[in-house]
Amino acid sequence: MQHKQFRFSSIVEWGTLLITTGLVCFFLVIIIWEIISKGAGSLSWDFITEVPREGMTKGGILTPILGTVLLTLLTALFSIPFGVCCAIYLNEYAEDNWLTKTIRAAIRNLSGVPSIIYGLFGLALFVQAMQLGTSMVAAGLTLGLLSLPYIITTTEEALMRIPASTREAALAVGATKLETIKDVVLPSAMSGILTGVVLTLSRAAGETAPILFTGAAFYINGMGSAIDNEFMALPYHLYMLSTQHQSIEEVRPIAYGTALVLIIVVFLLNLTAFYIRYKYRKNEN
Q: Coiled-coil segments, which residues (predicted)?
């Protein structure tokens, strides 16, 4: 009787999982197909390599693409070193006490804070208090703060997967703790660290709310790539074309093309993360 009940509950659980997964995939396919079918016609070499012209009603999206790339690089520069070092300290050096557990809980809670809150915080701290103004630097620092909890968490989880025996073996042959971490632990955990970093940066590249308050511009005449000035970015460019432009119907094809390019960029970043994980796992085997 218990065996039948257990089997029935397992069937119900698997059925529920398959149905919910199928619904999510179904609506995802509809959304992607809508964007591809309406945005593919706008994609061309000129669309990628030309700057917006005539109030963004003509031209391409080169300026938002360059802004997004530079912003993502700044985000990586501000978040990766500090996030990895924090994770190394928490996992390798910090004692397992109430303070460390509180810090870990705070970091995980920060991962759930809405991105618009980070945008308001960046506005208050970087734009106003530090007087950086609305600029790419302020936006990069804001996205760096948003990315930190994810990088710290994924890096620490990657470090936790390394067996303690690996560390003990390195220490037993005379290596110092720093040498053990640098030459043994980090290389072994590199696939998980890089995967988490790339996925975090792909999320940051698609954020709109944090850059809305800290430096994204509606329109820049020219390249506008200086990091101490306002900039154009794909997510904000798409938002403005879709909701705030004075000729929404006229620029709708450009909006769909921008959405498709943004999806392709995020997809390529995620694909890079999976490739890194596959490559390192293959080398480990």
A: none
212 touches 133 (CB < 8 A): no
Q: Compute the residue count for the chain.
A: 285
- Label each residue of 68-137 as H, E or C: HHHHHHHHHHHHHHHHHHHHHHHHHHCCCCHHHHHHHHHHHHHCCCCHHHHHHHHHHHHHHHCCCCCCHH
- How far apart are alpha carbons 211 and 224 in whole angstroms? 16
Q: How far apart are CA 111 and CA 105, in angstroms?
A: 10
What the block records as the tokens of 92 is 């390798």
| Residues 147 and 75: beta-carbon distance below 8 Å | yes
- Residue 271: phi and psi, rounded to 5, are -65, -40
Residue 261: name the closest of 107, 62, 31 by CA.
Answer: 62
What are the per-10-residue average pLDDT scores of the chain (285 residues)? 58 83 90 88 85 78 88 92 93 88 91 90 92 90 94 92 87 86 88 87 88 85 69 88 81 88 86 77 62
Q: Residue 53: enclosing H or E segment and its boundaries?
A: strand 52-53
Q: Which residues pair with 216 in a beta bridge?
A: 231
**Alpha-carbon span 138 to 227, nearest angstrom:** 9
